[in-house]
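Quick question, first post here. What does this chain look like in 3D?
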Amino acid sequence: MNPQKKVLIITYYWPPAGGPGVQRWLKFAKYLPGSGWTPVIYTPENPSYPLTDESLMKEVPEGIEIVRTPIWEPYQLAEKLNKSNKKFKAGQFDVGKNQSWKSRLSIWVRGNFFIPDARVFWVKPSVTFLEKYLKENNISIIVTSGPPHSLHLIGLGLKKKLPNLKWVADFRDPWTEISYYKHLKLTRRSDQKHRRMESDVFKNADVTLATSYTDAENFRKNGANAVCITNGFDGSDAAVKPAVQDRSSKFTLSYIGVLEQLRNPEVLWTVLDELVRTHADFAEHFVLKFAGRVDDKIMETIKNSGLKNHVTDLGYLSHDRAVEEMSGSTLLLITNFPNNSSRGIIPGKIFEYLATGNQIISFGPRDADVAAILNETKAGKHFSYQDTGQITDFILERFEIWKSGMLTENKGSIDRFSRKNLTGELAEILDQIS
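> Answer (accepted):
Ran it through. Tokens below.
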């Protein structure tokens, strides 16, 4: 048997970080040794995570080598200027009428002074440290995972210093094509700098990974050697799924995760508000459940509507508890940014949703990659933010099925989205370029 080869994974998010950003490479690291690769993790010593989840520590592979160096981040300064700037850590901020002058100023500073993001101060010291580390440990292949996209600049710097180094740039989300980019209040010069950096990454990385089909296509158009490996589900997580009868006490629509203003499905709250006001039977049985971090302005709007007596807000839960809540729900909600440039975003949560077997209601732009996955797996329906009548019909249809006791699970195949199979695809790419 061939000896294990080493790959250095440069990631900002690593347990005890919580939220979706940590899952992708935590799971890849779990399954890579089975495909002939030993992962080594490079991550900050003192990161400023927006969410933490100590329960994820038990998922870190036993014996994995983790290399840490200090990072300086300016978030404390931003939070002194405006308390709502705490959202910046997760790529969130107030928009539209919710923006105060302090918010506008903070966003302008964030967009034009910290390019590509506030973790940029970790780039130069990391390049210096890792150039020596890679040589001493005979590691010839690296992966950078962004956002934060500053980490791709670490890969770019190392590639220029070590021409024989092989580099995979993994984009969990796009850079200049992500929806909030246009809200950063960038000057023309700052915009050009972002785009120049992105282009340098695309042209110098040996492989660029995208998490959606549309993103991979867009990256190729911009000069990248791009391949799509979606996120997925881990069968061992799905093993905690409760019995079907535990899902029948209430007709429960659940959102699991972080919900910010730019992905707020206002049309859904309007539809649900109308249903509880006009359908007594629906109102008697309906629960709207949140598990995660929901923007205060969104929650305020919901609780000031006819839904106020139907809302259960559990706050942030450990990953294990979040999976239990997914499994115990009737309908699972997923949202995306509404504009067409976001068609390629496939939120990682959808794959854990798929593993529960429960139906999914999704919101985002028309012809989205999420819609293709839901159609393929027969796991639910995708709507635009204008499909009011169709949304009402779908929810009532699912409610009648729930009342009849004929809860049906999705019938399409989801095997190709398992973390183990997806890691096999990654290992093939590593084998090809090493």
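Residues 78-82, 84-90, 239-246 have pLDDT under 50 and may be disordered.
Residues 188-204 form the longest helix (17 residues).
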